[in-house]
Design a protein that fits this description.
The chain is α/β, with parallel strands linked by helices. The protein has helices spanning about 5-15, 20-25, 30-45, 60-85, 100-105, 105-115, 135, 200-205, 225-235, 245-250, 280-285; strands at about 50, 55, 90-95, 120-125, 140-145, 155, 160-165, 165-170, 190-195, 220-225, 240-245, 255-260, 265-275. The longest helix has 28 residues, at about 60-85.
Length: about 290
Protein backbone atom coordinates (compact mmCIF):
# COMPACT_ATOMS: atom_id res chain seq x y z
CA UNK A 1 0.00 0.00 0.00
CA UNK A 2 1.44 3.37 -0.99
CA UNK A 3 1.93 6.04 1.65
CA UNK A 4 -0.50 8.40 -0.11
CA UNK A 5 -3.19 5.71 -0.09
CA UNK A 6 -2.61 5.22 3.65
CA UNK A 7 -2.99 8.98 4.19
CA UNK A 8 -6.25 8.96 2.22
CA UNK A 9 -7.64 6.03 4.21
CA UNK A 10 -6.68 7.53 7.60
CA UNK A 11 -8.05 10.95 6.68
CA UNK A 12 -11.34 9.51 5.45
CA UNK A 13 -11.58 7.51 8.68
CA UNK A 14 -11.37 10.83 10.55
CA UNK A 15 -13.57 12.97 8.31
CA UNK A 16 -16.08 10.26 7.27
CA UNK A 17 -16.80 12.44 4.26
CA UNK A 18 -15.30 12.02 0.79
CA UNK A 19 -15.57 15.72 -0.11
CA UNK A 20 -13.90 16.99 3.08
CA UNK A 21 -11.18 14.36 2.77
CA UNK A 22 -10.41 15.47 -0.79
CA UNK A 23 -10.35 19.12 0.24
CA UNK A 24 -8.09 18.45 3.24
CA UNK A 25 -5.58 16.46 1.18
CA UNK A 26 -5.91 18.75 -1.84
CA UNK A 27 -6.80 15.95 -4.22
CA UNK A 28 -9.92 15.25 -6.27
CA UNK A 29 -12.84 13.37 -4.78
CA UNK A 30 -12.38 10.80 -7.54
CA UNK A 31 -8.79 10.21 -6.32
CA UNK A 32 -10.14 9.47 -2.82
CA UNK A 33 -12.73 7.05 -4.15
CA UNK A 34 -10.17 5.28 -6.35
CA UNK A 35 -7.71 4.88 -3.47
CA UNK A 36 -10.33 3.38 -1.14
CA UNK A 37 -11.66 1.07 -3.85
CA UNK A 38 -8.10 -0.10 -4.59
CA UNK A 39 -7.51 -0.92 -0.91
CA UNK A 40 -10.81 -2.74 -0.62
CA UNK A 41 -10.00 -4.88 -3.68
CA UNK A 42 -6.61 -5.74 -2.23
CA UNK A 43 -8.01 -6.68 1.17
CA UNK A 44 -11.09 -8.35 -0.21
CA UNK A 45 -13.61 -6.61 2.00
CA UNK A 46 -15.33 -3.25 2.39
CA UNK A 47 -13.59 -0.75 4.64
CA UNK A 48 -16.42 1.81 4.73
CA UNK A 49 -20.19 1.58 4.75
CA UNK A 50 -21.48 4.20 2.35
CA UNK A 51 -24.97 5.63 2.24
CA UNK A 52 -26.40 8.90 0.91
CA UNK A 53 -26.53 10.23 4.48
CA UNK A 54 -23.29 9.03 6.05
CA UNK A 55 -20.00 7.19 5.73
CA UNK A 56 -18.77 4.90 8.52
CA UNK A 57 -16.01 2.37 9.08
CA UNK A 58 -16.80 -1.32 8.86
CA UNK A 59 -15.45 -3.72 11.48
CA UNK A 60 -12.54 -4.57 9.17
CA UNK A 61 -12.03 -0.86 8.49
CA UNK A 62 -11.84 -0.21 12.24
CA UNK A 63 -9.20 -2.92 12.61
CA UNK A 64 -7.15 -1.57 9.73
CA UNK A 65 -7.44 1.97 11.08
CA UNK A 66 -6.06 0.91 14.47
CA UNK A 67 -3.10 -0.90 12.94
CA UNK A 68 -2.26 1.72 10.31
CA UNK A 69 -2.55 4.69 12.68
CA UNK A 70 0.24 3.44 14.94
CA UNK A 71 2.50 2.61 11.99
CA UNK A 72 1.81 5.91 10.26
CA UNK A 73 2.72 7.87 13.41
CA UNK A 74 6.03 6.01 13.59
CA UNK A 75 6.71 6.80 9.93
CA UNK A 76 5.96 10.49 10.49
CA UNK A 77 8.16 10.60 13.58
CA UNK A 78 10.98 8.96 11.63
CA UNK A 79 10.66 11.50 8.82
CA UNK A 80 10.60 14.40 11.30
CA UNK A 81 13.70 13.07 13.08
CA UNK A 82 15.55 12.65 9.78
CA UNK A 83 14.55 16.16 8.66
CA UNK A 84 15.76 17.65 11.95
CA UNK A 85 19.02 15.75 11.67
CA UNK A 86 19.52 17.01 8.12
CA UNK A 87 19.14 20.57 9.42
CA UNK A 88 21.56 19.95 12.26
CA UNK A 89 18.79 20.35 14.84
CA UNK A 90 19.53 17.29 16.94
CA UNK A 91 22.00 16.59 19.70
CA UNK A 92 23.07 18.57 22.75
CA UNK A 93 23.45 22.33 23.02
CA UNK A 94 25.60 23.44 25.94
CA UNK A 95 24.68 26.93 27.14
CA UNK A 96 26.94 28.98 29.40
CA UNK A 97 25.36 31.34 31.93
CA UNK A 98 26.56 33.77 34.58
CA UNK A 99 25.20 33.17 38.07
CA UNK A 100 21.40 32.72 38.22
CA UNK A 101 20.72 33.84 34.65
CA UNK A 102 19.70 30.28 33.76
CA UNK A 103 16.51 30.92 35.76
CA UNK A 104 15.79 34.03 33.70
CA UNK A 105 16.04 32.15 30.42
CA UNK A 106 13.91 29.17 31.51
CA UNK A 107 10.96 30.25 29.27
CA UNK A 108 13.34 30.74 26.34
CA UNK A 109 14.82 27.26 26.76
CA UNK A 110 11.34 25.76 27.12
CA UNK A 111 10.23 27.34 23.83
CA UNK A 112 13.37 26.14 22.09
CA UNK A 113 12.93 22.55 23.28
CA UNK A 114 9.23 22.57 22.35
CA UNK A 115 10.21 23.55 18.81
CA UNK A 116 13.13 21.12 18.67
CA UNK A 117 12.29 18.09 20.84
CA UNK A 118 15.25 16.13 19.47
CA UNK A 119 17.64 18.64 21.08
CA UNK A 120 18.88 18.54 24.65
CA UNK A 121 20.04 21.67 26.48
CA UNK A 122 22.65 21.54 29.24
CA UNK A 123 24.14 24.39 31.28
CA UNK A 124 27.62 25.41 32.43
CA UNK A 125 28.36 28.28 34.79
CA UNK A 126 30.65 30.93 33.34
CA UNK A 127 33.21 32.27 35.82
CA UNK A 128 33.48 36.05 35.86
CA UNK A 129 37.24 35.65 36.11
CA UNK A 130 37.19 34.54 32.44
CA UNK A 131 33.83 35.31 30.81
CA UNK A 132 34.83 34.15 27.32
CA UNK A 133 37.19 31.29 28.20
CA UNK A 134 34.75 28.38 28.08
CA UNK A 135 33.35 29.65 24.80
CA UNK A 136 36.73 29.99 23.13
CA UNK A 137 37.85 26.60 24.46
CA UNK A 138 34.83 24.94 22.85
CA UNK A 139 33.49 23.71 26.21
CA UNK A 140 30.19 25.48 25.62
CA UNK A 141 28.37 26.11 22.35
CA UNK A 142 26.71 29.39 23.21
CA UNK A 143 26.84 31.84 26.12
CA UNK A 144 24.15 34.16 27.42
CA UNK A 145 26.12 37.28 28.31
CA UNK A 146 25.55 40.81 29.47
CA UNK A 147 25.94 43.38 26.70
CA UNK A 148 27.95 44.91 25.25
CA UNK A 149 30.24 42.18 23.92
CA UNK A 150 32.87 43.51 21.53
CA UNK A 151 35.14 40.58 20.70
CA UNK A 152 36.33 40.13 17.11
CA UNK A 153 36.05 36.33 17.18
CA UNK A 154 32.59 36.19 18.74
CA UNK A 155 29.16 36.72 17.20
CA UNK A 156 26.34 38.35 19.15
CA UNK A 157 22.70 37.46 18.58
CA UNK A 158 19.53 39.45 19.25
CA UNK A 159 18.71 40.53 22.80
CA UNK A 160 17.03 37.67 24.69
CA UNK A 161 15.77 39.77 27.57
CA UNK A 162 16.25 43.12 29.28
CA UNK A 163 16.01 44.13 32.92
CA UNK A 164 16.31 47.25 34.99
CA UNK A 165 19.29 48.48 37.01
CA UNK A 166 19.28 48.79 40.80
CA UNK A 167 21.66 50.12 43.44
CA UNK A 168 22.61 47.86 46.34
CA UNK A 169 23.05 49.91 49.54
CA UNK A 170 23.26 49.16 53.25
CA UNK A 171 19.78 49.10 54.77
CA UNK A 172 20.70 52.01 57.07
CA UNK A 173 22.01 54.13 54.19
CA UNK A 174 20.09 57.36 53.43
CA UNK A 175 19.44 56.16 49.86
CA UNK A 176 17.71 53.04 51.21
CA UNK A 177 14.66 55.17 52.04
CA UNK A 178 14.29 56.39 48.45
CA UNK A 179 11.78 55.00 45.97
CA UNK A 180 14.42 55.39 43.27
CA UNK A 181 17.88 56.84 42.72
CA UNK A 182 19.65 58.69 39.90
CA UNK A 183 22.98 58.04 38.25
CA UNK A 184 23.95 61.50 39.49
CA UNK A 185 23.59 60.22 43.07
CA UNK A 186 26.69 58.11 42.50
CA UNK A 187 28.85 61.26 42.65
CA UNK A 188 28.18 61.40 46.39
CA UNK A 189 28.94 57.71 46.99
CA UNK A 190 31.82 55.26 46.97
CA UNK A 191 31.21 52.55 44.37
CA UNK A 192 32.77 49.09 44.42
CA UNK A 193 35.20 48.36 41.61
CA UNK A 194 36.02 45.03 40.01
CA UNK A 195 39.38 43.36 40.59
CA UNK A 196 38.68 40.91 37.77
CA UNK A 197 40.39 40.99 34.36
CA UNK A 198 37.23 42.13 32.60
CA UNK A 199 37.10 43.92 29.23
CA UNK A 200 37.43 47.70 29.56
CA UNK A 201 34.00 48.20 27.99
CA UNK A 202 32.47 46.16 30.83
CA UNK A 203 34.44 47.95 33.54
CA UNK A 204 33.29 51.35 32.22
CA UNK A 205 29.68 50.25 32.74
CA UNK A 206 30.11 48.25 35.94
CA UNK A 207 32.23 50.83 37.71
CA UNK A 208 31.94 54.18 35.87
CA UNK A 209 34.39 56.98 36.66
CA UNK A 210 31.91 59.80 35.98
CA UNK A 211 28.18 60.50 36.17
CA UNK A 212 26.30 61.48 32.98
CA UNK A 213 26.93 65.17 33.80
CA UNK A 214 30.67 64.55 34.23
CA UNK A 215 30.91 64.53 38.03
CA UNK A 216 33.62 62.12 39.27
CA UNK A 217 32.63 58.91 41.08
CA UNK A 218 34.86 57.64 43.84
CA UNK A 219 35.92 54.04 43.46
CA UNK A 220 35.91 51.89 46.55
CA UNK A 221 36.89 48.33 47.50
CA UNK A 222 38.17 46.07 44.76
CA UNK A 223 35.99 42.97 44.64
CA UNK A 224 36.34 39.65 42.81
CA UNK A 225 33.04 37.93 43.62
CA UNK A 226 29.43 38.84 44.14
CA UNK A 227 29.65 37.92 47.81
CA UNK A 228 32.61 40.28 48.28
CA UNK A 229 30.54 43.04 46.72
CA UNK A 230 27.59 42.31 49.02
CA UNK A 231 29.87 42.26 52.06
CA UNK A 232 31.28 45.68 51.14
CA UNK A 233 27.74 47.02 50.74
CA UNK A 234 26.38 45.53 53.95
CA UNK A 235 29.29 46.95 55.96
CA UNK A 236 28.66 50.43 54.57
CA UNK A 237 32.01 50.65 52.79
CA UNK A 238 30.45 51.19 49.36
CA UNK A 239 27.36 50.93 47.17
CA UNK A 240 27.05 48.70 44.11
CA UNK A 241 25.06 49.08 40.89
CA UNK A 242 23.54 45.74 39.91
CA UNK A 243 21.05 44.07 37.60
CA UNK A 244 17.42 43.95 38.70
CA UNK A 245 17.58 40.15 38.94
CA UNK A 246 20.22 40.46 41.68
CA UNK A 247 17.51 41.89 43.93
CA UNK A 248 15.63 38.61 43.54
CA UNK A 249 18.47 36.13 43.78
CA UNK A 250 20.87 37.85 46.18
CA UNK A 251 18.75 39.05 49.06
CA UNK A 252 20.96 39.45 52.15
CA UNK A 253 20.35 40.80 55.66
CA UNK A 254 21.27 44.47 55.89
CA UNK A 255 21.10 45.14 52.12
CA UNK A 256 18.44 47.11 50.25
CA UNK A 257 18.08 47.34 46.49
CA UNK A 258 16.83 50.67 45.14
CA UNK A 259 15.90 51.00 41.43
CA UNK A 260 17.53 53.60 39.19
CA UNK A 261 15.03 55.78 37.36
CA UNK A 262 17.47 56.97 34.69
CA UNK A 263 19.91 54.10 34.12
CA UNK A 264 19.87 52.20 30.82
CA UNK A 265 18.43 48.68 30.94
CA UNK A 266 20.66 45.65 31.34
CA UNK A 267 20.52 43.54 28.19
CA UNK A 268 21.46 39.88 27.75
CA UNK A 269 22.10 38.16 24.44
CA UNK A 270 23.45 34.88 23.02
CA UNK A 271 27.12 34.88 22.05
CA UNK A 272 29.02 32.18 20.15
CA UNK A 273 32.25 31.52 18.28
CA UNK A 274 31.85 33.14 14.88
CA UNK A 275 33.87 30.42 13.16
CA UNK A 276 31.77 27.59 14.61
CA UNK A 277 28.20 28.72 13.99
CA UNK A 278 25.79 25.81 13.55
CA UNK A 279 22.13 25.39 12.66
CA UNK A 280 21.49 24.47 16.30
CA UNK A 281 23.06 27.72 17.51
CA UNK A 282 21.10 29.74 14.96
CA UNK A 283 17.88 28.04 16.05
CA UNK A 284 18.50 28.94 19.70
CA UNK A 285 19.61 32.50 19.01
CA UNK A 286 16.95 33.40 16.48
CA UNK A 287 13.43 34.37 17.42
CA UNK A 288 13.87 33.80 21.13
CA UNK A 289 13.53 37.31 22.54
CA UNK A 290 10.95 38.08 25.19
Amino acid sequence: MELRDIEIFLTLAQELHFGRTAERLRVSQARVSQAIAKQERRIGAALFDRSPRKVSLTAIGELLHTDLSAGYRRIQQGLETATAAAKGLTGTLTVGVIGPINYEITPIVARFQARHPECHVTFREIPLTDPFGLLRAGEIDIAVLWLPVREADLSVGPVLFSEGTVLAVASGHPLAERESVSLEDLADQVVVQSALPLPDYWVDVLSPRFTPSGRPIRRGPRISTNEESLAAVASGQAVAPAAESDARYFQRPGITYVPFHDAPSQQWAPVWRAADETALIRAFAGGQAR
